[in-house]
Amino acid sequence: MKKQMGWELEGRCSYKWVLYILLLLLLLPQTVHNVPLAGCNIGEPLPINHKYYQAGDVIIGGIISQIFTLSNPVRFKSHPSHELFDDIVFITQTYQHILSFVFAVKEVNENHQSLANLTLGFHIYNSHFVASWSYLAAMELLSTWGRFIPNYKCDVQDNAVAVIGGPYANICFFIATILSTYKIPQLGYGSAPVMKDESQGRFFKRMFPDEAHQYTGIVQLLLHFSWTWIGVIFIDDDSGHMFLQAAIPIFSQEGICFDFLESLPYLYFNNDIYEVFEKWVAIYKVIMSSTANVVVVSGENYTMLVLRMFPRVSEVEDVPMKTKAKIWVMTAQMEFSSLPFQRFLDIDIIHGALSLAIQSKDVIGFQKFLQMRKPSSDKLDGFLRDFWQQAFNCMFFNTEVEKENEKICTGEEKLENLPASVFEMTMTSHSYNVYNAVHAVAHALQFMHSSISKHRAMENVVRWELLKQQPWQLHHFLSSVSFNNSAGEGISFDGNGELVAGFDIINWVTFPNQTFLRVKVGKIDPIAPKDKVFSIAMDAIVWPHIFNQVRPLSLCNDHCHSGYSKGKKEGKPFCCFDCLPCPEGKISNQKDMDDCFLCPEEQYPNEDQDLCIPKDLTFLSYEEPLGISLALVVLSFSFITTLVLWIFMKHKDTPIVKANNWKLTYTLLLSLLLSFLSPLLFIGRPIKMTCLLQQTAFAIIFSVAVSCVLAKTIIVVLAFMATKPGSRMRRWVGESLANSIVLSSSLIQATICTMWLVTSPPFPDLDMHSMTEYIVLKCNEGSVTMFYGALGFLGFLATVSFTVAFLARKLPDSFNEAKFITFSMLVFCSVWLSFVPTYLSTRGKYMVAVEIFSILASSAGLLGCIFSPKCYIIVVRPELNSRGQLLRRNKRI
Q1: pLDDT at 432 over 70
Q2: Is pLDDT above 50 for 119?
Q3: For the domain 41-209+363-399+410-490, what is the CATH code?
Q4: How far is residue 83 from each of residues 36, 39, 44, 434, measured CA to CA in Å?
Q5: Contact status, residue 542 vs residue 550, Cβ threshold 8 Å
Q6: Is the domain covering 625-892 a CATH 1.20.1070.10 domain?
Q7: Distances (CA, A) of 815 to 742, 867, 886
Q8: Where in the chain is the domain with CATH 3.40.50.2300?
């Protein structure tokens, strides 16, 4: 089997040690069965081989899981002690719990001012990690020392006033099952038992803070490092299930998801070794194939034994690995523990791990007390010799051993020379809890003594009354106890019987010589102000070697950087998501944002969509090329119009000018001149006055121009009809008709514009939305209805004029302008028909440019089509500008 598993153990480690770790777990928390009490005869010496007794006036009991005794299953055919193997498995680290118990009692006894000169004694029993021995130890505390007579005590001083138990939840539960019936106060210094009913926990105090503080602290630790993708390992028992029910919802509410939730098996004595091994392999494969770099471990003191076996599993089995190391985040119930054969195993797996530990301080004198510990220092210590042999890997002479290749214990070995993986010289958090538990009982006794002293005058009477008090009477004083221990730490219990304390955050640092350091890197103080409850020194943390001192990440996928938002990934937990680019116009300026958001109105997104940039103010100005170009075009057409007007005024007596109704011609040219100049109102920074004049001036001026063209067209048609014999149209041909058409059309447009200005006039406005990068300063039309009403009336005039001119384009008259007017109105209508969709699809200052272009183009169409042929004759072909020439042309037509 040794060859099959591939475990090569050094030193004196033999095949049996390979089985120890497996049998260890097989012996761990069991249900109540195989209780050896049936094999014990009344009054017969107890079969508990490992116990520690010190006489005193007042006794404190201790039931501590320390040693495994490997035995066959009890079949009730003989005394259980007769079926034990000779081999024992000693968890050397746990021996410190016993020594801290002894040290605390020693301190109390040396303080002559307490307990009315009474001395404390103790009975400490090994529970063997199982229910049967725990029950047996509890029953012996109810018996006379050295004889198993349950419920009988021949000496009142032999009564245990309180019992300290641990470090496992089930051990405390087994103890409470018996001792709660007798109302004996109990103090558990490790994991909390899950009591089945209220009566079991009524006399139970826990040297451990409220679990909710621990869960919150772990969440704060994970969130501080942004570890939102984790794995969880827990013990498959009542404590593990309580952790799942209480902690997992808190994790989820804070945005932490789980790649896996795996339970270490709750094992029974008759489990098959290979089934256990296969379970380890399965769990280790899940852990190492996970993409989560962080694994939260909710365990017991012994869980470290299993954790340290994981690397051996990888040597035996082909385990796929996503990463070669994990960051273990361990609960405060866990401590470093190992079996004898594990001293040869590497402890690098816990390098860089983080764990919580109950807040503690160094106890003065404890290390010196440990240094003085020798096998010869206390003959009543039933644990010391076995501890010494397994800690120093030696054997005493009086022990039945194999003589060959065995190292002999001298008894002069020094505990400080042991590596920390075997025994620690600094007080651990569990030992600190045991130390405080003893002092809590001592202070409760002192308070009870003070209470009795108020009613009794004689010291001897007080002393006797104190000894006669029942254990349940001490419970009241224990509940209200509050004191400072020798390290200056305040000790008290809350209303639920739990220790009022915080947690230290511990960073585990290992070394090649099988030793390690627990480095305090932070703390969780529930009673501190909200912003100081959690604190941690980032620079003090040592990470696993694979991360090269770079803070590890533990995410389901990479962060969504700025400019992206998270999108749900179907079939995955909420911590797993796709990164979607922000839609146009939105940004995200932080990692892992759930949604992108719009910039404020006065800002716009940058190209990467991760920042809002202030918009620049823009308008069509004379300082930019477009504004300058349009202004030059305006001035050019205005000059040309002025030149045409000058030509007509200079040649006003020529036939071609007279034939074109010079008053209408001058009015048309003046309106065209103003039309060409009106775009200047659109260029430059909009102000209230320019906004009022822009659209209204343009509408009225163009109405005059178009009405002049309409009047010209109608007069041409009427003039042709008046040449027919007997026609009555002659009386309509004249200036009055032309003036009426121009005035009436202009008046209607002026009325529309007046109503516009009165009801909802244009005004300067800031357009935040039409252009992404600019705030457009423009003139708001005010009433869109009135704007399009004025534009529609102008279109109506143009349409009528175009229709009439088109019908009259072929009239046989040399003075007929109809065909030129037709072309001009065709240009005019085409420009303004294309203006509407172009104007609506353009944004910002370019809307103004489109309107200016339409004004210039339509005005230029009228000027060019109507006046360019006449100017050509007047200037270039003056010989054609005569009555005779025009009559000859008329005859040819």
Answers
A1: yes
A2: yes
A3: 3.40.50.2300
A4: 11, 12, 17, 33
A5: no
A6: yes
A7: 21, 13, 8
A8: 41-209+363-399+410-490, 211-360+502-547
